[in-house]
Write a structure and sequence with these properties.
Largest sheet: 4 strands, antiparallel
Strand content: 5-15%
Helix content: 40-55%
Shape: elongated
Number of helices: 13
Number of strands: 7
Order of helices and strands: HEEHHHHHHEHHEHEEHEHH
Strand order of the largest sheet: 4-3-6-5
Structural class: alpha+beta
Length: 422
Amino acid sequence: MKNIRNRALALVLALVLLTGLLSGCGQEEDPIQEAFGFPGDTVMLTVDGNDVTASDLMYWMAYNADYIAQYYQTIGQEIDWSATLGGSQPVGEYVKEQSRQTAILYSTVTAHTAAAGYSFDPDDADYKVQFEEAKENMGGQEEFQRFLKEMCLTEDSFHAVNSVALVYQHMQEGICRKGGEYEPSQEELKQYVADKDLLSARHILLMTKDPQTNEALSQEQAAEKKTKAEGFVSQLQAIEDPKQRSDKFNELMKANSEDSGLASYPNGYLFGAGEMVAEFEEATRGLEIGQVSGIVESNYGYHIILRDDPTQSEELLNSWAETKMQDLSNEWVTGAVVEDKEAFTNLDVADFYAKLTAYRESLQPEAEGQEGANDGEDANSGKEDGGQAGDSQESDPQAPAQEGGKPEDGGTPDSKPDGDGQ
């Protein structure tokens, strides 16, 4: 299996990550049954004795198949599920295996987070706000409901799948923190920093270009900036006490730095080789921890840099926690006992996608009729509030849940409010 990608998990709703914990597509209607002729609670495989049903698997089948279909559409050819597209595995088998691996990942994450005592509360106030915002971003309740039906989901299963990402995040935040099961020692953090060649620094930036136009300032303006920077350097290097120097640096940085990233990174940057401009990285490497640089000039302007201890960075702890959770997730998946059931073994991707396409097409007349009714309502409301009759919000809800739109990338259980549309 591909390694699980390293990325932070945002506590936001996704209209894109729709897998795991799906125990059916509603009690009254079963889109899996309607589309494919077998019920959504059909067991496709088991992972450590836990069932993975058709409803757990079919979103990933649809997503990965859509990805391949989109590629063929781009090159102007009919889909050939038997083609290898440069690899050794036919694309149909590729779709099936990628979907299987993702289902295994989500099943193991669900089981292990629950065993560790991490839970999800659908009545959480912040979650409810984010849920409503997500629906609005899709175009409102009716568009959201249409999307759910097309993707074989109910609101309950939608909440359930979002819970996987949220409890994963909760566990990540808990296990590596002070007193947590995997709290890192100072030596472990130092080794982590060394292995990844990480640096930490704050800087005061006085720009020598206009941030709006990107045009260079006049020589006179640049000279004024340099003189100002020289004054800051003199003040800082005259302070012998490290804490007082750090406090003064913060004071000058907050009052004078023209770095647009300061608001997002008020405590400075944690970075590796090649992530910052060369002059900044080289100067940082040349400093001792706690030491202040002279003026460092780059294409952006004049920098004054204070090198910090990366092991004291909150960002480093977050990175450590992400890596630890990835390692644990990989262990869970690698050690899982998986049994494919006959329903999965006999699943043919070409047949699956043909039926899915036909089912989606069958939903369109109903959706179009409903949109016509909405237009009438919009016209009335437009007259009342001065709006323009017939205005509607368009949305593209089907966005890839995996970063970069590539199913082979895999992914940690993740929730994102938007993404690249299919």
